[in-house]
Specification:
- Its EC number is 2.4.-.-.
- Keywords: Glycosyltransferase, Membrane, Transferase, Transmembrane, Transmembrane helix.
- This is Glycosyltransferase.
- The structure is a single chain.
- This protein has 374 residues and is of the alpha/beta class.
- It has a domain of 192 residues: Spore Coat Polysaccharide Biosynthesis Protein SpsA, Chain A (Alpha-Beta Complex).
- 49% of the residues lie in helices and 13% in strands.
- The chain has 12 helices and 12 strands.
- Helix 1 crosses helix 10 and helix 10 packs across helix 11.
- The longest helix has 25 residues.
- The relative contact order is 0.16.
Length: 374
């Protein structure tokens, strides 16, 4: 048992260590005051987001990019609150082109349908997706424009962070997202891109059409970002890049309760069995195995089947390599303040991740008042 345990930990260390090395290989990008010339269609699906829309709309108003070079396509997915009225009121004072579209439901995936609906109406070749609970940085589009003009790209994965609040649940989620973003960037650095976040994801319309959009992925409710990334990589991996720039970081809300967080992560985990990227599946298996090992080893130590020294060694090794990667992400995202709470998140995470993985194997899950099949 001890030999098997340390073998799993060794494989985990090699994986996370490779992401840390890859993180450094992805160069920081600075826009260098390149003149705006790229036109963008910003796609934002929403459902019952009256609470979050004012901040999003205000951030759109603060964008420095010329308003004649972008349009905002907000896709209403059967909202039952005041979301549409809030947008309409904002439109009266906005100089940007803003359109409200009704989601054309064709599948069991509302968000994929919403994005497809918007792309059919989009006037420009470059599509950028984000979420209604996000805040966009002022130089967001300027940075994308400069990156597109300086690189041969058809698909761009960009950074996302959680907005901080003064509680452990928020800090736990920030630490978790920092690890995911670290793995995302690191994957690009070792030429194995496998993660992205639909809150900050851009691609050319001609690429979307060339890979037939979300065709063959519509039976899974989530995954509008990952499945499209997989198709883009298969189409031409050389045109898929990561935009590592502080001026491109989109901020989003963390979940406000443990129940909503668990529901969100079950939704994320439910799509993993449908991944086509072998590296995604391998990474997920290694990470789950390492966390499951910590949970099982803790129980075996309690009942005396393995020594406490063995458990401590495993914890120290995993603690160190996780911290190494998260610390790199925290520096880039300017969220070093959460590192002092890392030990608490580290102790909770194995139980959390194993529970989510097990729960995701159930046939249905809840999200935004709807029930979805796995």
């Amino acid at each position: 048992m001890t030999i098997i345990s340390f073998f799993i930990i060794l494989i985990y260390v090699i994986l996370i260590g490779s992401f840390a090395v890859g993180f450094n290989k992805v160069n920081h990008f600075k826009s260098q005051n390149i003149a705006p010339s790229t036109s963008f269609s910003v796609v934002i699906p929403f459902r019952n987001e009256a609470k979050n829309l004012p901040k999003l709309l205000e951030s759109i108003k603060q964008l420095q990019y010329p308003t004649n070079l972008f349009e905002i396509l907000l896709v209403d997915d059967a909202s039952e609150d005041d979301s549409v009225n809030i947008i309409k009121e904002f439109m009266k004072s906005s100089s940007a082109s803003i359109n409200i579209l009704n989601n054309n439901r064709l599948s069991s995936s509302p968000k994929k349908d919403a994005i497809t609906t918007a792309i059919k109406e989009a006037n420009y070749n470059w599509i950028i997706t984000t979420d209604a609970d996000c805040i966009l940085p002022e130089l967001w589009l300027d940075t994308f424009n400069a990156f597109i003009l300086k690189n041969h790209v058809d698909c761009i994965v960009a950074p996302v962070k959680y907005m901080p609040e003064n509680n452990f649940l928020n800090t736990f989620q920030i630490l978790d997202l920092l690890s995911l973003q670290g793995a995302t960037i690191g994957g690009f650095g070792i030429n194995k891109p496998f993660l992205c976040n639909g809150a900050n994801f851009a691609y050319a319309k001609h690429l979307f059409n060339a890979v037939n959009g979300f065709e063959s992925n519509t039976q899974t409710a989530s995954g509008d970002d990952i499945f499209l990334l997989e198709k883009a990589i298969k189409h031409n991996t050389n045109t898929v890049h990561y935009l590592k720039s502080e001026t491109a970081i989109v901020s989003t809300n963390a979940q406000t309760t443990w129940n909503s967080l668990i529901s969100q992560r079950i939704r994320w985990a439910a799509k993993t069995s449908k991944y086509n990227n072998w590296f995604s599946k391998l990474t997920g298996s290694i990470v789950l195995s390492a966390n499951l090992l910590i949970v099982i080893a803790s129980l075996l130590t309690f009942f005396g089947f393995i020594t406490s020294k063995t458990l401590i060694y495993m914890l120290m090794i995993k603690f160190s390599i996780d911290l190494y990667l998260i610390n790199k992400s925290a520096q880039f995202f300017n969220q070093k303040h959460v590192i002092k709470f890392y030990i608490f998140g580290f102790l909770v995470y194995p139980l959390f991740s194993v529970y989510v993985a097990m729960a995701s194997m159930v046939s249905t899950y809840q999200w935004k008042g709807r029930t979805f099949k796995r």
